[in-house]
From TrEMBL:
One of its GO terms (molecular function) is transaminase activity. Its cofactor is pyridoxal 5'-phosphate. It comes from Desulfofundulus thermosubterraneus DSM 16057. It comes from the Bacteria. The keyword Transferase applies. GO terms for cellular component: cytosol. This is Branched-chain amino acid aminotransferase. Belongs to the class-IV pyridoxal-phosphate-dependent aminotransferase family. GO terms for biological process: amino acid biosynthetic process; carboxylic acid biosynthetic process. Keywords: Aminotransferase, Pyridoxal phosphate, Transferase.
Length: 276
């Protein structure tokens, strides 16, 4: 089946979808994107993603091309036209050629999910990226098209045989993964780096914190040292596509037992049940 792309409200074969050469998203990475899980043909947590996109546009001086309800309708149409039952949807909004004066270019596309059942059964292995996350950057809390640092960190992870690369910030504390937020479990308590540590406060990260409260599991947001992460009983990663992924090794050092943990599994199943 040929992939159908939605570009500025028009539905075209991927081979015919184009954006202007002078679009500042293409030239400078000036733009935003959202990656949305599709389950059972439905976009998961769509409202939260669209509201984050709207907030990012306001902060970066970009114009939304449509009302959020109209964007949501295009998302649903793109899923239907691509016959996507379970997969990933990306909503990309560039700044266009005249940021702030006119709306940029909107592109919506789908692709298969990158994670499989064996990933959750064995858990992920990670290592420290050679890059540091700048916790002072005004961009770190937005999902911008200026994503090269993350791309290079993921390339580094693949070359070293890791599933994910983890960023430390300039002060040497844990920030986030290249495509994920990170949590640790110690003595039954869940801990995750606070937003001031240089991370994108992910939508699934917030869902996990709310799930912990619902389950009666104590959860903290605060600075986390690399040693504390390595000394954890359990660790897990989150993003909108993986939801909750066990992290069982950093380099070749096991986290806890080196297997997906009990608390991680409880949270993972509760999150899946809640958003299904």
């Amino acid at each position: 089946m040929n992939t159908v792309i939605c570009i500025n409200g028009q539905f075209l074969p991927a081979s015919r979808a184009q954006v202007p050469a002078l679009d500042q998203g293409f030239l400078y990475g000036y733009g935003l994107f959202e990656t949305i899980l599709v389950r059972g043909g439905q976009p998961v947590l769509l409202e939260a993603h669209l509201k984050r996109l709207e907030k990012g546009c306001t902060a970066l001086g970009m114009a939304l091309p449509l009302l959020l309800t109209e964007l949501g309708s295009l998302v649903h149409q793109t899923i239907k036209l691509n016959d996507t039952t379970d997969g990933a949807l990306r909503l990309t909004l560039s700044a266009g050629t005249a940021p702030g004066e006119a709306a940029g270019n909107l592109v919506i596309s789908t692709r298969p999910l990158p994670y499989s059942t064996p990933d959750y059964q064995k858990g992920f292995r990670a290592g420290w990226s050679s890059f540091r996350r700048n916790e002072q950057s005004p961009l770190v809390k937005f999902k911008t098209l200026n994503y090269l640092e993350n791309v290079l960190a993921k390339k580094e992870a693949r070359e070293r045989g890791w599933d994910e690369a983890l960023f430390l910030n300039t002060a040497g504390y844990v920030a986030e993964g290249a495509v994920s937020n990170i949590f640790l479990v110690k003595n039954g308590q869940v801990i995750t780096p606070s937003p001031d540590q240089g991370l994108l406060p992910g939508i699934m990260r917030q869902v996990v914190l709310e799930t912990c409260r619902r389950l009666g599991i104590a959860a903290q947001e605060r600075p986390v040292s690399p040693h504390e992460l390595l000394d954890a009983d359990e660790c897990f990663l989150t993003n909108s596509l993986m939801m909750v992924m066990p992290l069982v090794k950093i380099y070749d050092r096991p986290i806890g037992s080196g297997q997906p943990g009990v608390v991680t599994e409880e949270i993972k199943m509760a999150v899946r049940d809640h958003i299904s």
